[in-house]
Amino acid sequence: MRKNKDAPVDQMGADKCFDRDATPKVMRYQVLMSLLLSSQTKDQVTSAAMEKLRGHGLSPENILHTDDKTLGELIYPVGFWKSKVKYIKQTTELIVRQYGGDIPDSVAELVKLPGIGPKMAHLIMDIAWNKVSGIGVDTHVHRIANRLKWVKKETKAPEETRVALESWLPRELWSEINWLLVGFGQQVCLPVSPCCSDCLNQGVCPSARRGTSKAKAQNKAQ
């Protein structure tokens, strides 16, 4: 179901939003920025904002010299854009002052940056540093892992899901699982009204079976 790689994440995800001709430091900074912007925002909107930022000049030094009003205009309409203007400025200042213009190379240090949570940190490590530190669990991975019962008991938060998945999923698959499930969640296993009838997992998915049984019960009652 993911072989065509035609979901939004495949075309506009964080691994597609940085300038591949940039220096390694700037490339890593752009990966971090794309993930910071991505929170509560669709890939299409994040990608458009990143394109405008790159056109403006997306390096730590240039962003520090960009006023908040201009920065807000560049990233609008990403979710919570006003807060993200502050996060971008604060994070960039720390990167320049404490890390010599490069981003931190550990999850422990990345999550200290304003606007960067565990999911983002693990994805940054994977994409920017080519190091697998953990599974990046966003809303799609969290939702689908619970629907498929890939967690022993229902988890309430993405961090719980990450720990549960890492307890059994082979480490060599940790990098792939985010890409796999995010695209699947964008196209098939939707948050509301998932396309169960089109899903090849229909026969093994506990959630799909429940939906089928409910439909049969309704038809029988009628």
From TrEMBL:
Enzyme class: lyase
EC number: 4.2.99.18
UniProtKB keywords: DNA damage, DNA repair, Glycosidase, Hydrolase, Lyase
Stretches assigned to the HhH-GPD domain: 37-187
Catalyzed reactions: 2'-deoxyribonucleotide-(2'-deoxyribose 5'-phosphate)-2'-deoxyribonucleotide-DNA = a 3'-end 2'-deoxyribonucleotide-(2,3-dehydro-2,3-deoxyribose 5'-phosphate)-DNA + a 5'-end 5'-phospho-2'-deoxyribonucleoside-DNA + H(+)
Family statement drawn from the similarity comment of this UniProt entry: Belongs to the Nth/MutY family.
Protein name, entry field: DNA-(apurinic or apyrimidinic site) lyase
Gene name per UniProt: Nthl1
